[in-house]
Amino acid sequence: TGNPGNDETVITKTRPKTQRPPMYKVLLLNDDYTPMEFVVHILERFFGLTHAQAFEIMLTVHKKGLAVVGVFSFEVAETKVAQVMDFARRHQHPLQCTMEKD
Ligand code: TYC
């Protein structure tokens, strides 16, 4: 502006884009046949939940039809889904577990 003491300098800060990996929700689906205790056991065993946390998520699935068990990197989510599906199949329960981008 030409007024004394104002040089009108524009300061531009660069903000490097930090790359974060996409995260995936692991979902557990309800069915009419898998025993509640079996679902609780799976949640404790493969997701490291306490009995109380596992029971709560199992009840949510039972009442609402599905619930998010956790959010993980693609590889970890894929492994959890495979572990759950394999364990359920081996015990002849129709339990379904899937993943979707968060
Ligand atoms: N609905 C089942 C029953 O009444 C219990 C159940 C809960 C099944 C959660 C699957 O992901 C599930 N025995």
Keywords for this entry:
102 residues; alpha+beta; three-stranded antiparallel sheet; 3 helices; 21% strand; elongated; binds L-tyrosinamide
Q: Which descriptor suits the 3D outline?
A: elongated
Overall average residue pLDDT = 93
Bound molecules: L-tyrosinamide
The largest β sheet comes out as: 3 strands, antiparallel
Number of helices: 3
Query: How many distinct beta strands?
Result: 3
- Share in helix: 40-55%
Helix/strand class: alpha+beta
The percentage of residues in β strands lies in 15-25%
**What order do the strands of the largest sheet run in, or round the barrel if closed?**
2-1-3
Spans with pLDDT under 50 lasting ≥5 residues? none
Q: Termini distance?
A: 50 Å
Secondary-structure element order, N to C: EHHEHE
Rg, nearest Å: 23 Å
Description:
With 102 residues, this protein is of the alpha+beta class. The protein is built from 3 helices and 3 strands; from the N terminus they run E-H-H-E-H-E. It has a 3-stranded antiparallel sheet with strand order 2-1-3. The relative contact order is 0.25. The model has no long low-confidence stretch (mean pLDDT 93). The chain binds L-tyrosinamide. Residues 28-32, 34-36, 39, 58, 61-62, 95 line the site of L-tyrosinamide (TYC).
